[in-house]
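Quick illustration for those who missed Monday's session on complexes.
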Amino acid sequence: MADAPQRVLLPGGSGGIGAALARALLDAYPEARIEATHHRSEPPFADDRLQWRRLDLRDEDAIADWAGETDRVDWIVNCAGFLHGDGAGPEKNVRMLKPEFLLHCIRVNALPTLLLAKHFDAALKLSPAPLLAAISARVGSIDDNRLGGWYSYRISKAALNMALKTLSIEWKHSHPRGRVAALHPGTNDTALSQPFQRNVAPEQLFDPNYTAEAFVTLLAGLEAADSGRFWAWDGSELPW
Ligand SMILES: NC(=O)c1ccc[n+]([C@@H]2O[C@H](COP(=O)([O-])OP(=O)(O)OC[C@H]3O[C@@H](n4cnc5c(N)ncnc54)[C@H](OP(=O)(O)O)[C@@H]3O)[C@@H](O)[C@H]2O)c1
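Prediction with NAP bound:
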């Protein structure tokens, strides 16, 4: 079991899973201080140990400014993501592909985690056991792709997975006690999955609080030797 985190960053903390994870981390680690971000929505709750920051994760300068105000960071868990919005959503077939939608998915789902790794590199190095995780999705697994469709979201999550795997290799030298993880939350009852819940069996549609508690258990148990893997909420490993 690695050291308890004292400083945690939660980009996307205003989302359904992000807010649940913020609560679960505050419960699990009474000494921890958390900085979470929101973007279009307002902070979902307040706590003395939780600070909110409005941030567009597509904005590298804003991420660099945040890092410039931060010394040590123990954990970063990126909970931000995009599947549908402003009248656009996942493609059923290749004829529906729109380059701008694909690029938007990459800008929100893949690039921010790399920018966070870049700008918080020094702050993470000050931690005795740094961790960088991002919520990916099973549909980003190339091996596991049986249904097709959803080009832009799948491509952006596959890109995120490659970014995390590549970072884990760099960290073996640069952050030897570090852990990098891609996370799959299952299907959670949040705004992101809302339009696609019709065919999900009730027992397969998770309360984000359940997933968040499972993620805390999973992340707390990761050792440096586990770095560079793709985990489902229940601790099972997924193929890249
Ligand atoms: N829900 C599921 O069933 C499911 C399944 C598989 C994977 N996931 C993944 O899990 C993660 C969390 O999803 P969720 O269900 O909690 O979704 P959600 O409730 O829609 O939350 C999305 C979060 O991303 C933030 N965000 C979006 N664009 C942003 C930007 N440009 N800059 C900064 N923040 C931005 C949102 O901020 P604001 O709301 O403040 O704008 C919000 O905090 C995502 O990566 C998603 O792909 C979810």
